[in-house]
Write a structure and sequence with these properties.
The protein has 486 residues and is of the alpha/beta class. Helix content is 37%, strand content 19%. It folds into 2 domains: 137 residues, Rossmann fold; 276 residues, Dihydrodipicolinate Reductase, domain 2, CATH 3.30.360. It has 15 helices and 15 strands. The structure holds NADP nicotinamide-adenine-dinucleotide phosphate. The site of NADP nicotinamide-adenine-dinucleotide phosphate has 21 residues, from helix 1. It comes from Jhaorihella thermophila.
Length: 486
C-alpha cells in the first residue's frame, strides 16, 4: 500500500569512479534496488567510468559480483539482475587526461538528464568538472553529484565552490550528505512540521537540551591515510552532525522546497556561538586490555599522530528559539556500539504531585538513525500494580510499523532516495554551497585553536563510551549522556 513508486524519465547516469568502494557498496546496489522497484523507465542507462580497462562485459561482471555481495536478496532474481546489467555500459577514461572522454561524449543521449556522480577522491572533482565542460558533456540538464569531503577548510571549500561554479549553475550541483537521505531524518521533519503537538514545545522554554550522538564501533578501516589528515571534526562534525543539528534547530520553512529549507538551515549555522575550548573534548582510541583491536596510532601507522577520533562539544545557538538550551554533539570511532541517535530531552515537570519518591522524569524524543531507524517518545506512566503510585518511563514507539505494514517498516538505503532525487532534480536533501562554507567558517577556528595550542587528544579505550572528560563535560552541567545502545 505504501510502496508508491513513480518512475523517472529515461536518463544517462555516469559514475566516475564506477569501480571504487563507494560505487560497489552503495551507489550500484541503490540503483539496482530502485530498478527492481520499477523506478526506471525503459532506456535508462548507467555508465561506469574509471581508468581500468574493463570493457562493458568486464564491468557487468564486476557489478554482478558487487550486487551479489551488497544486495544479495534482490540479486537472487536472475531475470531482474540480467535486465539491470543490460542497462550498464563502461568507458575507460582518465579524469586528469583526455583519454576516453570523446568515447564517453559519444555514448550520451541528447535531450535527457545526464547525472554525473563524482565517486572519486576530492582531488579529482575539479579536473572532472573541467573536462565535462571541455568535452561538451554539460547541457542544461546535466547534474553533478559531489561526495564528501567537500573541502578541508573554508578556503579549500570556497575554491572548490568557485571551480564548480565556473562550469555549473548551483541548481546543477548536488553536494551529498548521505545522512540527509535517511528515512528517519526526513521523518524528523514530518514529525516537527506535520504535527501541532511538538512545534509549540520545540524551544528553550520546554527543551532542556539536545544530544546528537554518532557512535561507530569500527576504526578507520582502509581510510587511514585520509583520516589521519582529517580527524573526527572534519570527517563527521562539519558535515553530518551539523546537518542533523540544523534539522533539529531550524525554523519551519515556508514550504518544503530546496531553497526554503536550505535558507533556514543556513540561519542556524550562522547563529551558532563560537565554541569555548573548555566545551570541547577531543579523544583518540587506544588498545584495551584483553581486546584484539589495535589503538589508532598503530592502526594508521603513525606513532605520533595527534588526530582526534572522538570529539564531544557543547554548542550554543544565539537566537530567540534556542538561547539557553545547549546542543551536545559527540562522535567517535571504536566505541562500544554503532549507534546514531538524536535525543531531544524536555524539561522536568515544574512540580511533582507524586512526592519526592516518584523521582524526576523527563520526556525524551529519540530519533534513531542507525541501526534500527525509528522514533520513540519516552513518557512517564504509572507502574502497573496495586499499592500507590510509582512512576516509570516507557518508550512510545512512533515508527508505527504495525499501522504501516511491512512496506512502511522497510526503510530504503539513503543512497536510493538521494540518487532518485538527483534524477528528479530535487535538491532539498543536498547541501548548498553557502551552507558548506558557513559550516567550515564555524569549524575552522576550533581546529585552528587545537593546532595553535598543540592540543593532544585524550586517550580512550577501544570498546568504551569515549574519554572520561566527555562525561565531565555533561556532569558540570548536571546532565548525563544517554547510553550508546546497539
Ligand atoms: P576508491 O575505492 O579509491 O575508488 C576510486 C575510484 O576512482 C576507482 O573507481 C578508481 O578506478 C577511480 N579513479 C581513480 N583515479 C582516477 C582517474 N585519474 N581517472 C578516472 N578514475 C579514477 O574510493 P571510494 O572509497 O569509492 O571513494 C570515492 C569518493 O567517495 C571519495 O571522495 C570518498 O571520500 C567518498 N566517500 C567514500 C565513502 C566510502 O564508504 N567508500 C564514504 C563517504 C565518502 P581506477 O583506479 O581504475 O581509475
Amino acid at each position: 500500500m505504501f510502496a508508491k513508486t513513480t518512475a523517472v524519465d529515461p536518463f544517462d547516469l555516469v559514475i566516475f569512479g564506477g569501480t571504487g568502494d563507494l560505487a560497489r557498496r552503495k551507489i550500484l546496489p541503490a540503483l539496482y534496488r530502485r530498478f527492481c522497484a520499477g523506478q526506471f523507465r525503459e532506456g535508462a542507462r548507467i555508465i561506469g567510468a574509471a581508468r581500468a580497462d574493463l570493457g562493458t562485459r568486464g564491468y557487468r561482471a564486476f557489478v554482478a559480483e558487487a550486487l551479489r555481495e551488497a544486495a544479495a536478496e534482490e540479486a537472487g532474481d536472475a531475470a531482474a539482475l540480467d535486465a539491470f546489467l543490460a542497462t550498464l555500459d563502461y568507458v575507460s577514461l582518465d579524469a586528469r587526461g583526455d583519454r576516453g572522454w570523446p568515447e564517453l561524449a559519444a555514448k550520451l543521449t541528447e535531450d535527457r538528464v545526464r547525472a554525473c556522480f563524482f565517486s572519486v577522491g576530492p582531488s579529482l572533482f575539479a579536473p572532472l568538472a573541467e573536462r565535462l565542460r571541455r568535452h561538451g558533456i554539460v547541457t542544461d540538464r546535466t547534474r553533478i553529484v559531489v561526495e564528501k569531503p567537500f573541502g578541508h577548510d573554508l578556503d579549500s571549500a570556497r575554491a572548490l565552490n568557485a571551480t564548480l561554479a565556473a562550469h555549473f549553475h548551483e541548481r546543477q550541483i548536488f553536494r551529498i550528505d548521505h545522512y540527509l537521505g535517511k528515512e528517519t531524518v526526513q521523518n524528523l521533519m514530518a514529525v516537527r512540521f506535520g504535527n501541532m503537538l511538538f512545534e509549540p514545545l520545540w524551544n528553550s522554554l520546554f527543551v532542556d537540551h539536545v544530544q546528537i550522538t554518532v557512535a561507530e564501533a569500527v576504526g578507520v578501516r582502509g581510510r587511514g591515510e585520509y583520516y589521519d589528515r582529517a580527524g573526527a571534526m572534519r570527517d563527521m562534525v562539519q558535515n553530518h552532525l551539523m546537518q542533523l543539528l540544523c534539522l533539529i534547530a531550524m525554523e519551519p520553512p515556508s514550504k518544503f522546497d530546496p531553497d526554503a529549507v536550505r535558507d533556514e538551515k543556513l540561519k542556524v549555522i550562522r547563529a551558532l556561538d563560537p565554541v569555548q575550548p573548555h566545551h570541547i573534548v577531543r579523544g583518540q582510541y587506544v588498545a584495551a586490555p584483553g581486546r584484539d583491536e589495535p589503538g589508532y596510532r598503530e592502526e594508521v601507522g603513525n606513532p605520533r599522530s595527534t588526530t582526534e577520533t572522538y570529539v564531544a562539544l557543547k554548542v550554543g545557538i544565539s537566537n530567540w528559539r534556542w538561547a539557553g538550551t545547549p546542543i551536545y554533539l559527540r562522535t567517535g570511532k571504536r566505541l562500544v556500539a554503532r549507534s546514531s541517535v538524536i535525543n531531544v530531552v524536555f524539561k522536568h515537570a515544574p512540580h511533582s504531585i507524586f512526592g519526592e519518591d516518584a523521582g524526576q522524569h523527563a520526556n525524551i524524543l529519540s530519533i534513531r538513525l542507525q541501526p534500527n531507524e525509528g522514533i520513540t517518545l519516552q513518557v512517564t506512566i504509572k507502574e502497573p500494580g496495586p499499592g500507590g503510585i510509582r512512576l516509570i518511563d516507557v518508550p512510545l514507539d512512533m515508527t508505527f510499523a504495525e499501522a504501516l505494514g511491512p512496506e512502511g517498516a522497510h526503510h530504503p538505503d539513503a543512497y536510493e532516495r538521494l540518487v532518485v532525487d538527483v534524477l528528479r532534480g530535487n535538491q532539498t536533501l543536498f547541501m548548498r554551497g553557502d551552507e558548506v562554507e558557513a559550516a567550515w567558517a564555524w569549524t575552522d577556528p576550533i581546529i585552528e585553536g587545537w593546532e595553535s595550542r598543540g592540543d593532544v587528544p585524550k586517550p580512550y579505550e577501544v570498546g568504551s563510551t569515549g574519554p572520561t572528560d566527555a562525561e565531565l563535560l555533561m556532569r558540570r552541567d548536571n546532565r548525563r549522556w544517554l547510553g550508546i545502545r546497539p
